[in-house]
Amino acid sequence: MSFVVQVERVSVSGRLLEVSFALPESGVTCVLGQNGAGKTTLLETIAGLLPPDEGTVYWQSVNLESLSLTEQAARRCYKTQADTLQFELTAGEFLSFYTQASHSNAIAAELEDVLEVRALLKKPFVRLSGGEQQRVTLARTLLQNWPGVLAGGCLIVLDEPLKGLDIRHQWTFLRFLRTLAGYGNQVVFSCHDINAALGCADFACLLKQGRLLAVGPCVDIVTTTSLHNVFDCEFEFVPALNCGIYLQKP
What we know:
By secondary structure, the chain is an alpha/beta fold. It has a single domain (3-84, 152-248), classed as Rossmann fold, CATH 3.40.50.300. The protein is 32% helix and 28% strand. The chain has ten helices and twelve strands. The protein has helices spanning 39-46, 69-73, 91-96, 109-115, 130-143, 146-151, 167-182, 194-200, 218-221, 224-231; strands spanning 3-12, 16-24, 27-32, 54-59, 62-63, 76-79, 155-158, 186-190, 203-208, 211-217, 235-240, 243-248. Strands 6-7-8-3-9-10 form a six-stranded mixed sheet, sandwiched between helices. Strands 2-1-4-5 form a four-stranded antiparallel sheet. A two-stranded antiparallel ribbon has the order 11-12. Helix 7 (167-182) links the parallel strand 7 and strand 8. The radius of gyration is 18 Å and the shape is globular.
């Protein structure tokens, strides 16, 4: 099997402790854990934004440290947990900074439709609601390398992409992540909604206090026991037609 990301014994300033795992070239991976578990640190590290103190990160078998910033940008898209913009730019002007010349400064139609940003393009970004800003910044993240995403082989790293989105937009976006994986990309995202994450993801990384407790297919590693170990609270699995949900016990 070919891997898009390989992490070997990576440690970062006490926030990650000897983390090792590998992800296939395509699929959707959710990172689950409590606040402060190291989710953001892990995402920043595999995205090439935070060099590890120890260990090595490989992209498609190439040491990440050997790649220039330009080479890294051509292979991945990254969205931080919080995006701020202090200038009175419209959403369309904001997105235009990230649109590649090959798009002729037009927002990709698929992104407009899925994220429903077309009606927001002429509005000042700072005056949009939190959920509207999130949809615009999600579009911006993918526009950074949209031709590469369509071609497949990209690493798409999203830190809490569902934050601020209403239920309808959450599920629309999660379905879109499956589409992106279908193009041949690996999508890695963090999320606090366990059932939403598991409804979309193929793989899961379970983090606690900087340590990787488990990684692998969701159906194999996500159980009431593993969730209890990660979150220090009891869970009950409620079966449903062809699926089920995890409920936290009071």
